[in-house]
Amino acid sequence: MTIYNCNFIFRRRYDFNADAVKNQKRELIGNLGTLNAHTRYLEEWSPDVQEDAYRWVPTGLYYDLVDDGIGLESVSGITDDVNYFTNQNLWQAMIQNSPLTVSTFKNNLNQMRPANVTTTNSLFDQYD
Fold first, then answer.
1. Does pTM surpass 0.85?
2. I want to staple 85 with a disulfide (CB 3.0 to 4.6 A). Which of 15, 36, 65, 125 is the partner?
3. Alpha-carbon distance 97 to 95, whole Å?
4. Domain coordinates of the chain in residue numbers?
5. CA 41 to chain centre
6. Backbone phi and psi for residue 77, each to the nearest 5 degrees, phi listed first
7. Portion of the chain with pLDDT greater than 90, in percent
């Protein structure tokens, strides 16, 4: 969650016209169309990038829970059909029942949106 929050706050605070960040492969990436470099980093994040020692941390998951499903499935391999959570929901799910696992965090989110359990579970499964 920390990387997501940093990118989220950074996007709101700074201008992105000249922005560039390093992706999971440690390559410098910049803006792409309407995506700034920070959003692109999160959208292109994949648990399958072997060069990333921290690929097991589901960085892109948090962004995929709140974004509008930008559609970079061809890059990330993640199909994002979830767009109904807010940052407040994520924080609530992180403090409710003091989750110590991703599974408990997912269950907390599912309790908030029971009608969307199938799509939420599908997104989490792709990051597993």
1. no
2. 65
3. 6
4. 2-127
5. 9
6. 80, 5
7. 15
